[in-house]
Amino acid sequence: MTTASRRPVYLNLLKIKLPIAGIMSIIHRATGVFMFFALPYLIHLLDLSLSGPEGFAEAHAAVHGLVGMVFVFLIMWSLMHHLLAGIRYLLIDVHYGVEKAMAQQTALAVVVAGPILGLLLTGGLL
Amino acid sequence: MSRTASGLKAWAIQRLTAIYIGLFVIYLVGAFTLSPPADFADWKAWMGSPLVSVAMLLFVVSTLMHAWIGVRDVLIDYIRPIAIRATVLGIVALSLIAMGLWAAQALILVRLV
Lengths: 126, 113
What we know:
CATH topology of chain B: 3 helical TM bundles of succinate and fumarate reductases
Strand content of chain A: under 5%
Number of strands of chain A: 0
Low-confidence stretches of chain A: none
Number of strands of chain B: 0
CATH class of chain A: Mainly Alpha
CATH superfamily of chain B: Fumarate reductase/succinate dehydrogenase, transmembrane subunit
Shape of chain A: elongated
Structural class of chain B: mainly alpha
CATH superfamily of chain A: Fumarate reductase/succinate dehydrogenase, transmembrane subunit
Helix content of chain B: over 70%
Number of domains of chain B: 1
Radius of gyration of chain A: 20 Å
Order of helices and strands of chain A: HHHHH
Oligomer: heterodimer
Number of helices of chain A: 5
Order of helices and strands of chain B: HHHH
Mean pLDDT of chain B: 94
Radius of gyration of chain B: 17 Å
CATH class of chain B: Mainly Alpha
CATH architecture of chain B: Up-down Bundle
Strand content of chain B: under 5%
CATH topology of chain A: 3 helical TM bundles of succinate and fumarate reductases
């Protein structure tokens, strides 16, 4: 059986043109991994804010600084993309939105809504 | 347990935890946006109330399980050599347990003081 090993393999990531659902799927993974790496800082903020009035003020100041605001935006974008993409996957599990046209539309909607909701929530939260 | 059943179990846990995390995140973000805690006393009263506290602890456990299954799937896709894969998976597992205990400690301590 040499057939399998002779198949052409073409994995130039810069030249592969992914469909929108593929792009959405990669962002779902990337946001998940990003939020995993953000967990220690998020727990640190929770711990700090619950440690007392000084800690609360410190945590409040941290998320209201420039770097903190960018961080909150990235977390909110990730969270919203991951949540919306997750809802889309659950709907596909129950056979809703499986057809190509619908699947492409919902994937595009998730990719576009993520940063918009992220920005709105960052504004609403801070 | 067979490999198929174990994969199916992970699939089911990923969805069950996703539903809880999703609903709770919507509640958290909503509550924070509509009535943000004014000061420490306010924040402590909210996070220290029995219902929110237990819901937060359940959120922590759900997030850790969800993150474990998700990160595990990504690592198994990208790390082929078994020794490196096992080492990284071990580090991730211990890190997640440590983070869970850290968060739980903060949430429980605030109810005691």
